[in-house]
Amino acid sequence: MKSECKICAIKSKAASKLSDEEIEELSFNCALVKFHKGDSLIKQGTFSTNVAYLRSGLAKIHIEGPYHEQIVRIVKAPTYLGLPTTFGDKINQYSVTVIEEAEVCFIDINAFRDLLNSNPDFSYEIMLELCSNELEVFHRCANRTQKQIRGKIADVILEFSNKIYNANSFAMPLTQEDIGNLVDSSRESISRVMTEFEKDGIIRFSGKKIEILNKKTLLLISANG
Amino acid sequence: MKSECKICAIKSKAASKLSDEEIEELSFNCALVKFHKGDSLIKQGTFSTNVAYLRSGLAKIHIEGPYHEQIVRIVKAPTYLGLPTTFGDKINQYSVTVIEEAEVCFIDINAFRDLLNSNPDFSYEIMLELCSNELEVFHRCANRTQKQIRGKIADVILEFSNKIYNANSFAMPLTQEDIGNLVDSSRESISRVMTEFEKDGIIRFSGKKIEILNKKTLLLISANG
DNA sequence: AATAAATTGTGATGTACCTCACATTTTATT
DNA sequence: AATAAAATGTGAGGTACATCACAATTTATT
Fold first, then answer.
1. Is A176 helix (H, G, I), strand (E, B) or coil?
2. Positions of chain D reached by protein Cβ under 7 A
3. CA–C1' span, B217 to C24, in Å?
4. Number of compact structural domains in chain A
5. What's phi and psi for B56, nearest 5 deg?
6. Residues A137, A70: one domain?
7. Which residues of A touch B137 (CB under 8 A)?
8. What pLDDT tens digit does each residue of chain B (225 aa) get?
9. Same domain, yes or no: A168 and A218
10. Which of A63, A87, A126 comes nearest B138 by C-beta?
């Protein structure tokens, strides 16, 4: 068995439900690949017979909107990507692009389906993941459409700080244009609000680096607009 | 066995994977209830130990947004509702309200989980449903945020015409305020655009009744903004 | 280190849509 | 049928944000 697979089995909640034999079987049907920032893991519209397991790194899920790219979710390892393709018509319904050095295992769909079939605990965990994805999109959608820019940007900063890096200071892997596509605003507006936040002493930033100086106010802004 | 359950087993793709014994077992753990327009099936924030199977009728899934209700999806029977609750913390993460006379079976969570555990075909179908839900939300989200009002309203009319009623003429079960909450616009704007569409000879409407006169133009509007 | 490419900052201008306000119509309730 | 409550139509006015345009900076490439 490939040694990497054993590690995954510890890190991924779903994979931890697999027996040694199942992991072994899986290890014959998956290939570990390294990706750089900007690389495309999954490309909307293309044919696929793999599930992608994001082993490490960060990626953005995005779809082609009627006018421009729309980033629907930021995903952090460990997570499975491309499940709708597995269960659907084998055409990728969204794109996934790496935003921070990533390791990915491409798992053959049939091997993956076999696991779902034979191991209810595994498939239960996958369902859990699907459900929580759905809820996340619900909430992101409501926030994105109802709040105004300041609130939306505060959300993004807090998301990266709390959910992704667990730090008050981090290097934002998204460009301002990306952030715009994530919260549905123009690049210029993002820039303006960021400088506004800096002037108000809420954050400090230079280049990619963002440091949160006043999380309390950020939370207030997130809540009120 | 309750005779209703046999009917469900035919209509629902997932339930059709169940054996007679499983259906029988299920029938002891579910209760058929009728709901009227406006009734709440699932209420966000409340505790639940049931999955709701929408047997007939129409409902809206909505969540409390930071400022106002947000309708995230319109669901048509047959479908399962409240799955994230089953797999999560048992607190409903969204509300579901009937918009057209509905019959609902409330299935005990444990009975439901037993089925998922014992019947991989069933759980596969459920996963399929979850995946397609996720994709639907992705796309709705992109449309909602990128298109302008005329396009968004055209989308809603087409959705009801094509996906829900399969007819060019139907009684819209949503109020204009609902439509606003679905596409993120004000009630007034919906009203204005609707009369605009009527003036342009695209639709005819009075009260709840909507008749599509020029679907081609509607599609164009949907595509271009 | 030099050059090109990508990303960001910031002003000026425009507009799509929201909000408020009230009249009118439709639907529910007694 | 009468009355109340919801839902809709429509004008006037304001605004948050987009868009355009170009300069300044940062990051990538040779």
1. helix
2. 6-12, 16-21, 26-27
3. 30
4. 2
5. -150, 155
6. yes
7. 134, 137-138, 141
8. 566 777 777 778 898 999 989 988 888 888 899 999 999 999 999 999 999 999 999 999 999 988 899 999 999 999 999 998 888 889 999 999 999 999 999 999 999 999 999 999 999 999 999 999 999 988 888 888 899 999 999 999 999 999 999 999 999 999 999 999 999 999 999 999 999 999 999 999 998 999 999 999 999 999 875
9. yes
10. A63
| Distance between CA atoms of residues A136 and B72, nearest Å | 12
Domain boundary residue among A143, A162, A187? A143
B18 and B80 belong to one structural domain = yes
Beta bridge partners of B53: B80, B105
Question: Which of chain B's residues have a Cβ under 8 Å away from the Cβ of A151?
Answer: 66
Q: Within this chain, do residues B27 and B117 fall inside the same structural domain, yes or no?
A: yes
Interface test with A, best of B130, B132, B140, B158 (most A CBs within 10 A): B130
Same domain as A193, residue A173: yes
3-state secondary structure of A29: coil
CB of A84 less than 8 A from some CB of B: yes
Give backbone dihedrals phi and psi of B115, rounded to 5 degrees, phi first: -65, -45
Report ipTM for this prediction.
0.91
Range of the domain at A162: 147-224
Q: Is the CB of A176 under 7 A from strand C?
A: yes
**Which residue, among A119, A47, A59, has the nearest Cα to A88 in the 3D structure?**
A47
Please check whether residues A181 and A133 belong to one and the same domain: no
CATH number, domain containing residue A74: 2.60.120.10
Residues B176 and B94 in one domain: no
The backbone region for B144, taken as left when phi is positive above 0, alpha when psi lies in -120 to 50, beta otherwise, is: alpha
